Amino acid sequence: MDRELFVTNDIEQEWINKIRQNREWIEQTAREADTAGKLNHRLIDWLITEGYSKLSLPEKYGGYGLSIKSVILLQETLASYDESTALSIGWHLGIVGEVFQFKLWSDDMMTEFAEAVQNGALSNRVVSEAQTGSPTRGGRPATHAVRQGEGWLLNGVKTYTSMSHRLTHYIVGAYVEEKETLCFFYVPADKEGCRIEESWDVTGMRATESHDLILDDVYVEDRYLVEAGRDKVDNPWLMHIPAVYLGIAQGARDDAAIFAHSHSPNSIEGTIADIPHIQSKLGEMELKLMTARHFLYHAADLHQSGARGLAPTFGAAKHIVVNNGIDIVDIAMRIIGGKSLEKAGIIERRHRSMRAGLHNPPMDDAVIRMLAAETQDISR
Questions:
Q1: Which of 104, 136, 249, 379 sits in a 20 to 30 Å window from 268, CA-based?
Q2: For the domain that residue 266 is a member of, what is the CATH number?
Q3: Is 223 found in the same domain as 261?
Q4: What span, in angstroms and rounded, lies between the C-alpha atoms of 281 and 128?
Q5: Is 301 in contact with 358 (CB distance < 8 Å)?
Q6: Domain shared by 341 and 255, yes or no
């Protein structure tokens, strides 16, 4: 498998083996969670117990200290069996990686956060709102924070709060009038006034339980204002998103390959994998998968080598992975035929969940505009 080319250390291989060894029950519970539209609690519990939620926490803070490249590799592996759980916990891994790599918070708050993660905490950055849409569009959030005594009072409604019922901490984006900017607050989920409203009823990524978060006069101490009008940096940790969709694509390719090499209708000799047009489809899938994987991992390598100005590269990686992934799933379903629509199988779920990637940031049009802006230098 092409993925094996990118394994570079023992920790990566150990985790890949561990996930594969538990494949049977992971796939079974993923199917049940998708059907119910509920979180795969058994898998989340297992991941926390095994230390997966500490992958991107630096070693000096008690974690594994894995790079974004390693996280991409493991997220891709997990997503090939349970994409909803991989995407959900990926938000947590990305936040931990970003906060500590770029030292976004004070030393005291990073220490507090690290201790929480060591004890099984799960976090998500909640920014989206129904009126403003994706936070990458730049709309001013209606969620706001006002000074009250030695702290802040937060009010608002956040959408797409993935893993909502299992989060122990919300990193809430709120507008602060007196600072005239968007700020982020570290909000323990057990704070009075925090409430999850069950609004998630979708076709793809059903088991992320990305319900709404209601903030009703939630009070937090002043030290919990962790980010205020910070400089924007190229964030490599958002590549945990395309890693998940790459995993879905890999799973679809595997489904189709297994079917093609084993399905032998009595109208032919051998299997359908011997038929030229099926071979063409298998080869096309493999090419699209390799193209997406190599671009994504190269983007991670560029970041780790110290390259700068990689925002267009990160955006292009997500665009290529998702759109190639949609094509791969479609080709896989054409190979498998009518059986690909059976709800007892996994391929129809891959089809539904892959479409969700179009709506994770950055969106396709934003990426294309960003790449178009790169051409301005040519005319100067």
A1: 249
A2: 1.20.140.10
A3: no
A4: 38
A5: no
A6: yes
Identify the CA nearest to 216 among candidates 243, 201, 194, 231: 194
**Per residue in 85-94, pLDDT tens?**
999 999 999 9
CB burial string 169-196: b at 16+ within 10 A, e below:
bbbbbbbbeeeeebbbbbbebeeeebeb
* Domain's final residue, options 184, 211, 228: 228
Q: DSSP label at 195?
A: E
Contact 196, 211 (CB under 8 A): yes
Selection from 4, 3, 2, 9 nearest residue 304 by Cα? 9
Task: Inform me whether the pLDDT recorded for 316 exceeds 70.
Answer: yes
Same domain (yes/no): 137, 169: yes
| 98 and 180 inside one domain | no
Distance CA 258, CA 272 (A): 11
Q: In whole angstroms, what is the distance from residue 269 CA to residue 306 CA?
A: 54
CA distances from 319 to 80, 122, 188, 236, 340 (A): 19, 27, 34, 14, 25
118, 152, 182 — which closes off a domain? Answer: 118
CATH of the domain at 200: 2.40.110.10
As for how many domains the chain has, the answer is 3
For residue 149, give the 3-state DSSP assignment: coil
- Per residue in 289-320, is it b (16+ CB within 10 Å) or e — as a string? beebbebbbebbebbeeeeeebbbbbbbbbbb
Output the pLDDT for position 53.
98
Amino acid at 65: G
| Total Cβ atoms within 10 A of residue 202 | 15
Domain of residue 143: give its range: 123-228
Same domain for 13 and 56, yes or no, is: yes
* Per-residue pLDDT band at 375 (split at 50, 70, 90): confident
Q: Which residue type, as a one-letter code, is found at position 271?
A: T
Which residue from 169, 171, 251, 211 is spatially nearest to 39, judged by alpha carbons? 211
Residue whose token pair is 């925002």: 311
Residues 129 and 107 in one domain: no
Q: Give dist(CA 275, CA 270) in Å, integer.
A: 9
Co-location of 263 and 203 in the same domain:
no
Average of per-residue pLDDT values in the chain: 95
DSSP assignments along 307-360, one per residue: ----HHHHHHHHHHHHHHHHHHHHHHHHHHGGGGG-TTSSHHHHHHHHHHGGGS
Q: Model's pTM, two decimal places?
A: 0.95
